[in-house]
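Fold this complex.
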Amino acid sequence: MRRQRATPLARFPLALALVFALPAAAEPITVHDAFDRAVTLPAPPQRIVPIFASNTEIIASLGLADRIVGIEAYTRYPREVLDRPLVGGRLGFSVDAVVGLRPDLVVVTPSRQAANQLIDPMERIGVPILVLLQRSVPEILANIRLMGLVGGVPDRGEQVVARFEARLAAVKRRVEGRPSPSTIMITARLGNGLMLVAREGTYTGDAMVLAGARFALPGSRLAQVSPEAILNADPDVLLWAGNDRDLKELIARPGWAEMRAVQTGRAHAVSRVELLIPGPRTIDGIEHLAALFHPDRPR
Amino acid sequence: MKVWLGLGAVLVLALVVAACAGHDWASPADLVRAIAGDQALRSRLLFEWRLPRVVAAAFVGALLGLGGTIYQGVFRNPLAEPYLLGSAGGAALGATVALLVPLALPQAWLLPVLAFAGAWGATVLVIGISRVAGAVDAAGLLLAGVAVAAILGALRSFMMLALSDETVSLQVVLSWVLGGVQTPTWNGIGWILLITAGCIGLSLTLARRLDVLGLGETMATAFGLEVRRFVMLAVLAGSVIVAAAVAYGGLVAFVGLASPHVARWLVGPLHRPLLPASALVGAIVVVLADAIARSALPPAEIPLGLVTAVAGGPFFILLLARRLRT
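Structure:
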């Protein structure tokens, strides 16, 4: 079905011209993505559609925000890309809308049907689509590096990652050798009274460990736990991913005032965007968490 | 003849309108350019993505129209619809397995196959139960269908709760259940064409006996029809057709119910003209509903089953009211 656009020979003079004009820019590049697909880009992409805030932030962290031509409805950062056309939201992602933006790269994470809805059509239509998975802090850094490579700014990718790694090393020095407080981070309250907590093996859980905490509910396979289990675990630090008002409301519930974390003033609201979007701001989140877990040491 | 030409013209018109409809509307000239092999991104979008989907929608609608007509004929009930005998529940369970259970097979292939197997298997199960229970009549089949549907629905809900995680979200299953036409490749379209042609042929072999059955069981027996055997045969044939529709279109509400009625107004109650007319009506309805689903709320896409239900619900109520009044 896929027809050749132009023979490589026919493009040769143009490619040659580009080689002289922009030495690094005209090299085709092939990378392997999170689904182990080989993605080939004839040149660094100039019109990128990132699906999800995390991928948008990764691209923006490399200084490539001006190449973003479309976003999805739940992207709120950085401010400069918020005026871009929307290609999807709660009800899924529109192949029409994406292709209408004439992108030369779509970046997607397998969540909320995005990969299901977009990989097949983009492959058929011939738009390169890159799948990124950010399940841990190292994966976030690896993806920044990968996007730097794909975007034709590999040096910048290395610099950005090196900066983040230096900040993580500083956090590590700060928390090393100190007793890690047992911690529970509640990320959402469900209608049926259950609560979602950050688990081991997720980027949010990773951030907690890197910031020098340990899990008060270790080995929890499910993200949903009952409030009873949280009261019973009686963690040293209780975190609520959200605002202060909701935290106050949460710990005002019967029984919660007696928790150790509440009594010792170690129940804190933490930033959702820093800890629940697997992007560069997770590094900020880790620094902020470290300050909460180990408050007596200056930064 | 006039009716057929009219239906054909409306279908062609619906196909063209639907192919133009989308997040950004194409003109018929754009379509021609795309079909002629233009390689611009927009032309490729039209040729590789939008056109196959529009054609697939027509086939899904045609299959639902056929299935609905057979079921209404067999049960001699204007409220019968193709998902009556557990095929919806079975298909949804099959699709849930394909979407949520990590199996080492490509999902593009697994999903239609398991949906087909679920839809057909559930109906065969319903027929088996009614035979074992000795209730091989319409009422027995319907009751067995209700029971099997409840069991399958519960199994699916349990699987959705137990197997979903962050990356494979519940929304995937939910949106499949709410209906949506798959976008096959052009090779895939060839297969659907063959399947649909086969289904039309299969249903036409039943046409005359469905007419006889329509006279009532006693009358049909007097005409030499082995009623019970024929009911089984027709239900099996109908379930294959519905399962094929489900495999490519998910669960699309009301089309199978409404198309035979519209077709009956146009060509009368005899099944030989009714079956193809109903297929044409079903095709037109699904093609247009899919166009609305794709273009009403850009950039989002409304699940197809919701569009047909919102339009089909009032139609169903009207039908019920008319039936109660007569």
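Residues 196 and 223 of chain A are 5 Å apart (CA to CA).
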